[in-house]
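Job type: complex structure
Entries:
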Amino acid sequence: MPPGIQVALPAAVLGAAALLVWFAGAAGLRVGRPLAATSAWIALAALCLLWLPRRGIAELAGPNLIPGARLLFRLDAVSFAFGLCVLVPAALLLTFQRRGWRESGAAALTVAAALLAVLADGILSTSLFWGSAATLLLVQLRADHERATEVFWPALLAGWLALVWAGVALEVTSGTAVYTAVPVTAMTSATFLLIAAAAALGSGLVPWRPWTAEMWDRPRLYGGSLAVAVLFPIGFYLLVRAYAADGGRWPSAWLNVLLGVLGVVIALMSALRAQAAPTRREFLSEGLPGLGGYALLAFAVGTPIGISAGVTTLLVAAGLAALLPLLPEGPESRSAPLLLALVAGAPPAATFAARALVLMAGFEAGEGWGFLAVAAVVAWLLGFAGAARAGHLPARPRGAEAAGSAAGAGLAAVALLAGGALLGQVVSRVSVPATAEVLSGAPGAIGGGGVAVLTTAGGWAAVALGLPLLVLVLLPILVSRRSLPAATADAPEPPLRLPWTGIAAGVGARLSGLSVPEQYRSLVNPRAVEAAMGRGQPLLWAVLLLALAVAVNR
Amino acid sequence: MLALELVEVVVAWLGAALVVLSDGRRGVALGIALYAAGLASTLLADPLAAAALALAGLVSAGLRLRDGHRGWGTLPPGSTPRLLLCVVSGVLAAYAGASLLEGPGPAPARVAILLGGALGVARLLSTTRREAALAAATLMTLAVGGAEAAIGASQVAATVVLAAAIAAMLLGLLPAAEGEPGGA
Amino acid sequence: MGPELALGFPAAGAVLAAALRRRPALALLCGGLLGVAGALALGLLWLPPAQTSFLGLGLPAAPRALLIFSALALTLVVALAPAGADRVGLLAAGLAGSAGLVAVAAAPDVLAVAVVIALLAAGHAALPGGRPFAVRMRGPGLAVALVLAGVLLQHGGDAPAFARLSALALVLALVAAAGLVPFLPELDPEEPAPASPVAWTGFFGPALAIAMVARIQPTVGPDGAPVYGALLVGLGVLNLAWGTLGAWLAEGDVAAWRYSFLADWGLALVGLGIVVPDGYAAAYLVLASVLLVRFPLYLWARPVLVGRAAGAMGPANVLLAAALAGAAPFAGFSIRLLLLRAATTVYWPLALVLGLGMLVWLAHSLRLARTLGAPRGRAAVGVVLALGFSLLLGVAPALMLALGGL
């Protein structure tokens, strides 16, 4: 048995489950959904058992991908944290969402591929499994409905190509693209920008409406929600590993600023779109992109608190990725306002704590990061405004199937609340070790104990900040016998109108209306050129040969 | 000697020109035969190669007499551009082969090879008739064999010349009638 | 006498299959057995004792591997041909072509290659087809003329201009033989696949290209080498752009398929032009994927392309689209990895151009996948096998490269 084989165990469980599902399905046994769900939970348990007791780094070397580049896997604090980000929402979604046996088998295989992408110890290895996961998801998405795939597929493919190029560029300059072996001087700004582009496209970290939000436009959510859950963390994984590859920092300070500003812009734009959403589903679709902006800001800060805050935010985002698609969309639920508030970041939820930690990282970093943190606060406030409005919106657009499972939503909500309450534990056991892995020197600036997060500025607990507020909000709801007012036929006016609504469609219409004027078309006519080539006109080929002969002799 | 070389080249040119200018089986066959004879006569330094190419040309010419348009069909109406092509190609090939290129082989051989290649490909690119295309391909194949022989005598060269000769004969075997479309 | 057997068996098989045409089962059996024998003879050439040849023929590893892939592709398309296809005709034409390709790979010099191309061209043009014989011979005929010109210029003198012009002519010969831009032959969508120009681009071309490059590259010399490389890269980028955009915007699906072949060839030409091991390896893998994946898929798409079946977009079609788009974990992954690494090594802006072309690639992949319809029976088996080969090329390229001695 090759050393480090245990690293592949969680993915192997999922892969084996996928095979079993298909064989069972072919034999007429419809056990796909429970099998896939069970395998996800077993994989999660295996991951925790492999890492938490001893926290020993394990590495597995596979065969050559291409000459000079090996398939490599590594289980350390970073891959453990991101493994949680992939497996937790996947397990919840596979358990509580309805899907057929074929879809369950494909989903299990997809989760395995995504897990291997974050266990990979090199850019090229990550690109193989990331690309494979995207391919599998494309099949599942298109098998159900084609909506949103026209945004998803180009973004993922472009991001994947950028990542591949970054990987080969590192190989050319330093002989390796392994995260932990790349020399500090090899990670140039150009290479990092390729990695950042891959992360942005792959995780939907763009100021306009990303594919992670477009997935919510599909009639059924089960395919798109899985795509978001497993692919969203991978882009951030690349950015975190880039710290390790460059000796604890990104190649240039301006890259930190650039990505920090991008993160804030994403958070703001997401909040603006959310508060103007026509349906509750569209409001919820901005939940993850908004949180992604916060995570990006946190990673860009680059301090131990920043990176820990980023990892924490991603773990919270994982919970959100499971919660949002599981929210019931049936008759008005009395818990809807509470759930919407939790999504928006009300204490004592983990969504509140994560955002607070990010802001704290920004303020403590100083030197302009404080201004970005203030802008992030504005985005947060807009989120609350959007959440308040969303309670009066129709749950979903016409033609969309009602999604959600009360049990699943309940479990995810409890997890978010518990995460907020136990944030200290999450920070100390997961985020801080991951930070220590990528930053040289122990991140003593942040720690966790029990329910509180401890920083140099002092300790605070989300529970203490929010539990009284939660009780104050919950009590009237539970005591009141009145049902909540139904969603109004006309959606309430958004607090802020989006000035650019319709501009994109208008620009698109103008661009598609452009054409070469009639009198010049003969100059730009590839079909005519091709017809001339096909007729094999000697004169055309003689002229071509003459031109080339002159050109090569100049 | 110069007169002899001139005759060799003119014979080769005549042959290639006949292939270009003729639409009938007799004209095409005579063209192939003349070209092969002219080419072979420029390669007498390698008698085996010359004999192989000459024989191949003769056999191919003979096979071309089996089918195709009856008669000579030489200089049909509208063949003025082809005539011009032959004249210009002849001049250019003579200039390139005799003055520009320093090898391979003797100048007459170079000129004959260039004539076969240039006129053959010009005929192939400008015709839609099967027998003309086959004749053009035969010219080019003989020219390739001639080039191999001109480059130098060796076991490899002998094999390639033999292969070119066989190929030229095989091209002569193909019928002149177009086939019918079918299948998927 | 390994090379002679590798050449003789498929040639005999082609003759027998054509002669026994009126008894299809017997023709398929005899032709098939002789074809398999030829493939085995090729395979045995890896053993030194089998490499001895009476005629002094030699088959280098890379062309040999592609010849085996050609044989595999032929087996797939004949055994799993769609209903209504002329399997005997496919087998006979394919075996004749395979014999020709063995001759090309074993040819001692580039002039011998030209002779074989002339014969192959005539034999291919003689197949029943929509376009006239002469029209179908033009591309390969021009290739023969260009080879001749190239060799004459190579021996024309010591001036650097001769070496450059020679390299120009020889590279253009390769492009003309494969039927690429700027020597794109006319395409008749109704023409039977064996007689169409796609047969050159998708079946004859790959092994021919590797064999020609093996003959040309050592002879271009220091003056011709820059022209050789630059021209291959330039024509590669041209074909990549023409192919990807053409496949996206083409009016007909047959044309779209043909353009998709051009796009693949564009990558191959760039790889051959970047004269580094990674580039050559990428080109080899591209050509292998053309033989084992794209060409068989094109033939299985013919029923939809000629209107005998309906297109479809099921999960299998989406998977095919991903494979055709070059996505991981299929063949495109390793090809893109190697090609981008080669381009970055030599000149990084080229990698940017290639990346943009690869991105445009996905615009036509769904369109092509739709033309495979809903595969059933033999076609479904064929699709699975094609995907399997693509997967093998993507995740185990080292194995495929080792077969080619790379």
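Summary: The mean pLDDT of chain C is 91. The CA atoms of residues 327 and 333 of chain C lie 6 Å apart.
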